[in-house]
Recover the amino acids of this structure.
């Protein structure tokens, strides 16, 4: 249950802090080197704290083309809904790739084409951690996540259309060629996302078109080195900045800047600052392998691993997306394969020991 803000005093308190910055852990702007992000960000300029919104899940999902009926024999499609799910992590998509976190548009397009060819269907982080993986039988979920809200991820042109050279434009292009490949993703945003002051145009477009907006803190603070007050402020302020543009839209997914958890770790999942409460159903790390199925006993929604999008060369390439997609494809790692029925959880009987007992009523081993 979200608590309501404590009136005008709380509004003035948070507004003042947002303008002045928070110094409980030194400088919230301090970041490790070589992450490819700008060091300076404008002050948020937030003037009042709105009521903490309820929850609206966003637009309904479009019907999937080619969906097999829910009565499909799980064994016939090799269903394994206890298998691993690749949660891919992207930062900048740019021709001027300068660091290990950058991908060129050509690399990004090629990775999406590979996912489509190999039967992956994108789902949002909200759908994944909520267990709402509703994709055709025989296909595999993949979660596309973007950190830091860089303009190379998404821009609108003068006509209000996505720039075709951005990550969103490329995703839409690939989806048009592969109708079963849902053009959805989760964007973990900071202040002034995508170079759009306050995100007034970009956040609204993404939400209205089925994308998920997640929290990446307002200032991209290294939470593991921040005091508790700074942690709660930065997460709450990040959520509130989204609610200023999208009132009533729940923010249920968070990615930790640099993958570094605060101390205590529970502060990332839920907390409050100046009357703004936040609660995340999924907290995402920065690496370095596929995530367990949300139906498995090994799934921890407070520490969901991700895989950095990366080619076969470079630092830690064996933990990057190309290497992991190879392992998932050739069976060295067991991947999640859908049975086509979101109301049941199908898997080979030999994998039953992996099931979270909380999901036993929906289990359908074969």
């Amino acid at each position: 249950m979200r608590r309501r803000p404590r009136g005008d005093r709380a509004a003035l308190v948070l507004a003042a802090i947002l303008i002045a910055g928070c110094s409980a852990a030194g400088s919230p702007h301090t970041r490790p080197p070589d992450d490819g992000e700008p060091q300076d960000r404008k002050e948020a300029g937030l003037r009042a704290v709105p009521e903490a919104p309820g929850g609206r899940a966003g637009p309904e999902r479009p019907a999937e083309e080619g969906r097999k009926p829910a009565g499909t024999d799980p064994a016939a499609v090799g269903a394994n809904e206890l298998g691993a799910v690749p949660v891919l992590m992207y930062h900048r998509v740019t021709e001027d790739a300068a660091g290990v976190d950058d991908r060129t548009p050509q690399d990004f397009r090629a990775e999406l084409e590979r996912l489509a060819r190999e039967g992956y269907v994108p789902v949002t982080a909200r759908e994944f951690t909520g267990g709402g993986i509703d994709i055709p039988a025989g296909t595999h979920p993949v979660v596309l996540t973007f950190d830091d809200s860089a303009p190379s991820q998404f821009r609108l042109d003068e006509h209000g259309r996505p720039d075709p050279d951005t990550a969103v434009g490329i995703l839409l292009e690939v989806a048009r060629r592969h109708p079963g490949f849902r053009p959805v993703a989760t964007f973990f945003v900071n202040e002034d996302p995508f170079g759009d002051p306050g995100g007034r145009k970009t956040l609204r477009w993404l939400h209205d078109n089925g994308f998920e907006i997640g929290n990446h803190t307002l200032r991209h603070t290294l939470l593991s080195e921040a005091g508790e007050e700074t942690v709660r402020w930065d997460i709450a302020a990040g959520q509130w900045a989204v609610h200023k543009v999208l009132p009533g839209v729940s923010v249920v997914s968070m990615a930790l800047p640099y993958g570094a958890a605060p101390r205590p770790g529970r502060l990332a999942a839920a907390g409050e600052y100046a009357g703004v409460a936040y609660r995340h159903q999924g907290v995402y790390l920065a690496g370095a392998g596929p995530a367990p199925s949300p139906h498995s006993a090994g799934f921890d929604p407070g520490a969901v691993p991700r895989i950095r999008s990366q080619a076969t060369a470079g630092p830690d390439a064996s933990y990057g997306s190309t290497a992991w997609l190879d392992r998932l494809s050739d069976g060295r790692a067991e991947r999640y394969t859908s049975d086509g029925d979101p109301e049941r959880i199908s898997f080979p009987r030999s994998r039953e020991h992996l099931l979270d007992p909380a999901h036993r009523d929906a289990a359908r081993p074969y």
The CA atoms of residues 130 and 281 lie 7 Å apart. Helices lie at 7-20, 105-117, 125-129, 167-177, 202-208, 228-245, 266-269, 321-330. The radius of gyration is 20 Å.
